[in-house]
Amino acid sequence: MSTANVTETQTDGPPAEDRSQDAWAVMEKFYRAEAAYVAAGGFGKTSYDEVAAYLDPDVVLYQAPGLPFTGTGTWRGRDGLERFLAAFSETWASMEFLEQEHWGDRDTVVVRSRVRFHARATGQEIDTMIMQLIRVRNGRMLECRPFYWDPAAIAAATLRT
Questions:
Q1: How far does Cα 134 stand from its chain's mean position?
Q2: Distance in angstroms (rounded) separating the CA atoms of residues 104 and 24
Q3: How far is CA 67 from CA 99, 114, 155, 159, in A?
Q4: What is the per-residue burial (b if ≥16 Cβ within 10 Å, else e) of 148-159?
Q5: Residues 117-129: pLDDT tens digits?
């Protein structure tokens, strides 16, 4: 994926502040890389490098326990996130961000996402909401705490009966 360099021009006052390292700007890039990774099949099927580029070396993901892809609930470091995304990619064939709203600043962002997942095991699709509290350090995700609107529906869509 290539991205164009965009230069913001301002005629009055001081030069425009570089917002490319803001928490939301970082997460937009991460979400695109994550969705591409999942769609390509995840671990062993595609490179993790683009996803890892947006992760702080000390990143921690706190997932709610009890879902098919959450394991123990806490995933640490880039390797931990790679293991999480391996389980996540085994669960979901695709994920599509349908709507996103965000609130925050340079270091912290809260993101409300409406996401459509397509489960590998059942073929079912689920349209659901996820709220994430995310902290960023030096232009990379440092901590993420997702909250699923309906974890029971997610589990049901992914588990064969």
A1: 10
A2: 8
A3: 23, 18, 6, 10
A4: beeeeebeebbe
A5: 999 889 999 999 9
